[in-house]
Amino acid sequence: MTEELKDKIRDYLAKHYYLNLATVSPQGSPMAHTMAYVSENEIVYLATNKNTRKVQNIMQNPQVAFTVDEDDPDWFDMQALQVEGRASIVADENELREVGEIMAAKFPVIADLPPDPDTIMIKIEPSLVYYLDYSIEFGHRESVNF
């Protein structure tokens, strides 16, 4: 069941576009950030400006959480992911190139944007993922460690 659940999580990530990233400021205040993302298996990548609050928060505390969900008013059809993990800044040129290609395929609009030297790539490696599927039963939740 564990590998089946991991496959469901990977598939869910691949089929969605936005997540809600939670970070903590150096002063201890929680912050939420809506972000477009791409995934490679269970690893998630986000492009952002290097001067954002989320980057500052991650540099101080790489422990993050995020959700990916449906925008559906029917509570009994809700599906979602709740993810806990560790964020880092991608420095490897090969990884940046590969993720850039994945991002351009998922979000073709970025092909028309000029390169921005202040853009960096954040990588989130999950440690614990909860998969919610209320179509099975209201409140149904399964978890898996990565």
UniProtKB/TrEMBL annotation:
GO terms for molecular function: coenzyme F420 binding; oxidoreductase activity, acting on the CH-CH group of donors. Keywords: Oxidoreductase. It comes from the Archaea. GO terms for cellular component: cytosol. Residues 5-132 form the Pyridoxamine 5'-phosphate oxidase N-terminal domain. Transmembrane segments: none annotated. The keyword Cytoplasm does not apply. SUPFAM superfamilies: FMN-binding split barrel. The keyword Oxidoreductase applies. InterPro entries: F420H2_bilvrd_red/Heme_oxyg, Pyridox_Oxase_N, Split_barrel_FMN-bd. Signal peptide: none annotated. This is Putative heme iron utilization protein. It comes from Methanosarcina horonobensis HB-1 = JCM 15518.
